[in-house]
Write a structure and sequence with these properties.
By secondary structure, the chain is an alpha/beta fold. It contains ten helices and twelve strands. The protein has one domain: Spore Coat Polysaccharide Biosynthesis Protein SpsA, Chain A. The chain is about 35% helix and about 15% strand. The strands form four sheets. Strands 3-2-1-4-9 form a five-stranded mixed sheet. It has a three-stranded mixed sheet with strand order 5-12-11. It is globular.
Amino acid sequence: MTSGEPIDVAYTWVDDRSPGYLDQLRSYARSPHDLNPNRTRDNLELLRYSLRSLALYAPWVRNVHLFTCRPQVPRWLDTRHPRLRITHHEEVMEPRLVPTFSSFAIVLHLHRLPGLSRRFLYLEDDMLLGVRVTPGDFIDGDNRLRVYPRLAGTTHEAREHDSPWTAALANANRMLDQRFGPARRWVSHFPLAVDIGLWEDMLAEWPEALGATRSNRFRSHGDVAPEFLYLHYARSRGRASAASLIQSYRQAFYFPLENRLAQMRLQRAAAEVLRPKFITMNDNFGERAEPRVETYLRGLLERWFPEPSPFERS
């Protein structure tokens, strides 16, 4: 990586409490998967705490880009901050593709965000930094993207009753098998370092499959998971290096949000002992969060990240 090369961060975010959003979503929905609240609610304001962790542990980041649907912007966000860029979906997506409720389609447009650095970090809004990080945690000394693998393998053929997410992983695996041969592992949840040139090469490699994924309004059984595809495409081209499994499990901590208070306390204790670089607090609450659990997690986030980021309203 070039010394002093600017690196931006891009977030994807929506909040289904925004007026009219759920009505619009329901009007387009075709299946129970389309109405899964785990993917649209923001009851813990995790983006706020992710930005706090970013300011605390990655002060070298240049600009922050928020990619969201119009007219949504977090109520607490200082939209006038000079290092903040807000882009709504229709500003970079074709008119026929909006509104979209598919994270796959949204991610496939990230490279089009205006003013984005040549290399940037993509953070989902539930990803937090746990300790100070450097660009070297994402791009190694040979200019290769870092990958944090897991022990588990992944399926290579989508099955009829798979969720859209599981099917999208299988579809990506099958495409990689056909192009590069079999054998690859699942990867941890961690901020994705994207090289725009390499990303565009990936889009050109599979234009039909990725074009179809980009066009689907919801996650669909025939989709491809772009983040998984990108990482393994980079590895297959010699453009990514894998951390050891020990490093991966030590540095990338998965913190599923469940309606079990004892489990949340155990996960908090484990995170505080391990002090991982990356923490993903994935929403697994189902229809709604149990109030005691929600209160506990809000208190935990405030304890971990008490100082407002520069991007919050004063």
